[in-house]
Design brief:
The complex is a heterotrimer of chains A (about 600), B (about 280) and C (about 290). Chain B is mainly α. Helix content of chain B is about 75%, strand content about 0%. Chain C has a domain at about 10-210: Orthogonal Bundle (Arp2/3 complex 21 kDa subunit ARPC3), CATH 1.10.1760. Chain C contains 9 helices and 2 strands, in the order αββαααααααα. The chains are: A alpha/beta (about 600), B mainly alpha (about 280), C mainly alpha (about 290).
Chain lengths: ~600, ~280, ~290
Amino acid sequence: MDKPLLELSNVSFTYPGAEHPVLLEVSFTLQQGDFVAVIGSNGSGKSTLCKCFNGLIPHYYTGDFEGELKLLGESAEGKRVSELSRHIGYVYQDFENQLVRPTVLDDVCFTPLNYGLADYRERGLRALELTGLSGLGREFIWQLSGGQKHLLALAGALAMDPDILVIDEPVAQLDPQHARQIYDILRRLNEQHGKTIVVIEHHAEFIAEYCRSVVLMDGGRLRWQKPVREALTSVEELLALGIYPPDVTRAALLLRPDRQAAGEYPLSCEEGRAWFGRRADAVSAADSDSAANGRTLAAASAAASPGTGSYAAMEAAVSRAAAEPIVRMEQIRLSYRTIHKTLQPVLGGINLELYAGERVALIGNNGAGKSSLMKLIAGITAPTGGTVQVKGITVNGLPPERLSGMVSYVFQNPEDMFIDDSVRGEIAYYLKARKLADMDERVEELLQSFRLLELAERDARLLSGGQQRRVSLAIGAAVRPAVMLLDEPTANLDISTKQEMTRVLEALRGHVETVVIATHDMALVAEWATRIIVMSEGRIIADGDKETVFSDGQLLRRAGLAETQLMEMSRLLNLPQICSSLEEFTAMAEWRKGELIYGGSC
Amino acid sequence: MVEAVKRALNKISVEHIKLELLGTAYNSSSTFLGRLDPRMLLIWYLFFAITPWFIYNRTILLGMFVFMVVTTILSKVSPYIVFILCLGLVSQIGWMFLLSLFFGGGAESLLPMLTLTLKLSVISLASITVFSSLDPERLSDGLSALGVPDAFAFSLSYGYRILPTLLEEFHQILLSFRLRGQRPEKHGFLYLRTAAYYLRILVLVFYPLMLNTAKRSRTTVEALETRGYTYAVNNPKVKKLRLSYLAMQRRDWLFVAFTVVYIGLLFPLGAAVPNLLY
Amino acid sequence: MSTLKTRYTLTQSQKMMIFVLSMSLYGLSNMFTELIPSIQLGPIELSVEYFAFIPLTLCMLFHPLYAAVGAAVGEVIFGELMLGQFGGLGELEKFITFSLAMYIAGRMVSDPKNRRQVGIAAISGVAIHQFCSSVIDIAKVWVGVEELEAVQGLAESIVIIEGVGFLNDVLFSGILFALLPTMYLVPRLYGKIEPLLGMKPRERNMQYASGSKSWLSPKLLGGAILLALIAMGAELLSESGWSIGEFELPGAESNEGMLIWISMLAAAVVAAVVLTVILRKASRRRQEAGQLDG
């Protein structure tokens, strides 16, 4: 545990043509057997730091480099990337692009084969086994799910049996169950196989559960490297940098700000159960209006967040009774052909009606059929059986050019929507094609409401993740559709940008009648949705408001989803309602640790 | 015409191309020829791709043609490809013949051209036989064993890897154009307007696609670096290891022997009966 | 550690990126152009021959050699091998003439922002390629048909067919799918796509990459000409083999058997020579690339 595996001393690096260094006098030691999380806001140098490990910097990215790198006690000077990479496996954030062979076995053997290791096949097979992919060796890469591809990228790195594994955002694109699966594998590699692991991670809950120490990057400097508990309980410092510690830890800060220095905050729900208790005077928001008002007062900072829970459900119920449904799906079936010429059912017997004013969250794990369902509504794919009607018009079979006034579909990857060379051009494209008279005003209005005025002339591809999302929403809204469908709008965003998304979604009001979001981000669902549809294996297994869906913990697990920490805590503490925001939670829970010892046992 | 365009657009459907192309590409190892040593097959191909140019004896050409037809059947080539091939040959030679009639030639000009057709057929069938029998991995290993640069061999299998991804992305961007675009109200003369609309989009799609692919290539090449690709390129030993599974087996020798004997017999026969057919 | 100061150097990986980029994009487009139906008006075929604007654009924006070769490889892999239409050696001549034409077009542009220059280069690129392939096609018939002159009107008709084909490809495909899109894309992409690959844009009037002599060196131009010669050679060398045969053919009927063996031997030699030259060339190019990295 004490042997330094890798040492950076006083490393500074400037990309060619850049004004400011992206790394500044960074010194860092990686101990054998450690499990390190690198955190920091966007542009703080996290990835750059990790790319120093295997020499990508400065050999691949030529730039001004100073300082020294030691790997296994030897100076890395003069060694090429390919030499250093023997000891360091690297899994990229856009891991799909690091898979370069057509079939799984081929890809996993690629690295050891390149290094001329005679047992490349055995190594590949063993790596597949370690990542739980055995038996998929002959599959094509494009047949794998996103999670499997990620595991394959990991297996490709493992095949070399490296000392160090670097994984850039391991769970960004995964649903909670698959995310956990990845981390469980990493833990096994760390504990049983002695691998040293470095992850770049936004999700503090995973860091708390799996990592041993944390490195905080800030503006190119390494601010500190601390054991995980000490690191994550520095709540205020982290929040100031836009990094969000686990919800329970933040709740603890709100309840007992004075304990921060001691580092005595819970990091997980398990711990939280011992730390918190139900407040004696806690009343459910649903119970009385006055309590709801009281809560709203307490949650003044969350004023922007939408009217939650039963209120909205009531609204929806009213509009349902009054109006025709916007979307009506009857007995929808969908299947596709596989390479073995068999039919693979994706959706079976879906009946669904959506109404104006609803904010629908479509939840379920990867592969549950969420995207397929939305594509059907959008008319992009045609159902194998049944009909889809939007505003009384049957959409299956219509050419895409005729669909757009009714429905707009915002792709998961915003870049797939960028077809022009400026943000303004993107938004105006639809309006221009139809030569609408009020084009300029509408573009201005949209730029305004999605806060894109300053970015209007930039190329959307070169914007940050959060900005790209805003552009894609504005593009969708420009169509003024009756229904807007968003596919995973918070995927690949860091937590602070995710929180911003909730506010951006508000901007859709007035442009769109009904919004549907497919997601597995429960925090977003909890904060935003008025109606939740749970899907699993191509079927709708639940449909209702937040209270009904979230109070059934079993249901979420069945759908392959995980509760947020706050939900779980609410359940564990028997709070009168399932809380979706910190404010709600702190209004109902109280600090108990050290005061009521008898309640502390689990 | 509009039907044709529609059909073409349907063919561009991602799933369709994925299934058809990749499915068939990797299913070829089940045929007799597909199991043969790729190096041997490639050299065999070279022979039949070059020698017909220098042979004017129709009997020999015919004998080769028969042999090629047999191997084509053995390799279970899709009839569609053979049809396309025939169509190409017939139309090329046909137009030449018609025009030469116009310039005062007669029926006698048909004969030399038939010979040309025969040659081209032998060559084309040889290439169809070999290249549709070898799955991409074996083909690239065979080529690389014969000294074709590794970059080509790598690109070949990378092509199969990246095609579905590219198609997917192409499809999405095309959809974005169509969802936000406006098709011409009227089809215009000969559907020209509609055709122009689609062709214009098809070209425009490549603007975003170029930028997105550029981003992707960067990570890919960077990842190749970390996965030891450059190390392999500079190390002949690695290539040896990669190709070590290639070995001439009994059936390879038999195939070679049969070809040699057949061609060996064909030449004396051709010398004896030069005008077997015409 | 070393700090690299030469900014315009293309590293090995950057060349590889250009290659991969060009290969995948042009390959994909080739797949579509193969599938797009053509309109046949008599011997004239109105078809979308190829999306030449892709390699043209990339050759003008990046290093033309890697973009050109990448595109040619892409065509072979996506447009031929994957669709099961690979013509074997016949593709060789296409490969070489195409990459040569694209390379020349790329070299003709010194300032990607100058639309006129871009336009002229684009149409020249297509014209060079189409011209070369027409010549080769004519040569093919020359070689393939015995006693070409003996057949009335054949020579003329071939030239006419090829000539019309050439004009059609240059005027139809060339303008619609090379000239216009290239003029639209190059200035738009200039300065935007390079950073995505981690490179600096080509500077105005910049001499090639690495600013080193090697790109303008006679070695490279010689190499290009050599490639062209091989392309012609693959078809024309064989012609000489044929004429030898013809000269002796009237000699004696009984000799024919032997003559065939001789011509076969000649064929084998040609094949061997062509192959070794190509392989040498390839490995030399690789070494050259390696040296450039330093």
